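Changelog note: in this version the structure field was regenerated for every chain. One regenerated record is shown below for reference.
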Amino acid sequence: MSTLSQFSPLFAFIEYYVTNPFTQTLERRKFRLNNLRKRCRTAMEFRVQANTICSQLNMKLANGWNPFNEDVKTENPGAVPIKVVYEQYFRDVEKDLRPDTLRGYKAFSRRLLEWCDKRSPDMLLKDFSDVMAVRYLDEQRQKNNWVNATFNNNLVSAQAFFTWEEEVHREEPILRHFQEEERSQEAYRN
């Protein structure tokens, strides 16, 4: 059953629990309603529309709908080309991001995918390791003469993608690779 959760007048999301067919565990899924909130003129109008979405989602869930069936269809989520996972990522998040943020994330993904293609065409998500994450960021920093702000923007883009990936696939968490890189950069700056 889905419910509307609201932490402030500007931030709300719908959350629900569903069985992950890959792990056979119950997982919490949620999606933000930022764009809906911006389109509504009053809080009451927003609440009515959000509750309508909740009831429609509850009907879909009661009829057996599962969002994992719309995601990448594979027995092993890590055995998916990283390009396919990025396409799914942008389908999932583009409605929740500001246009400038989306443009920055897409620029990061384009550079990362080009870099991955040079190493291994059709690289699988599970093949992207912590060593590769550090090597990618170091090469880009040296090649493009990135200042700290540019480096940090790319780090945020990477963390956003790999956090989403970890929530969706629950495979080998890749996010830690970029968190370790962030800690090493903080030591480098000091």
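Spot check on this record: Residues 77-189 form one domain. The longest strand covers residues 11-20.
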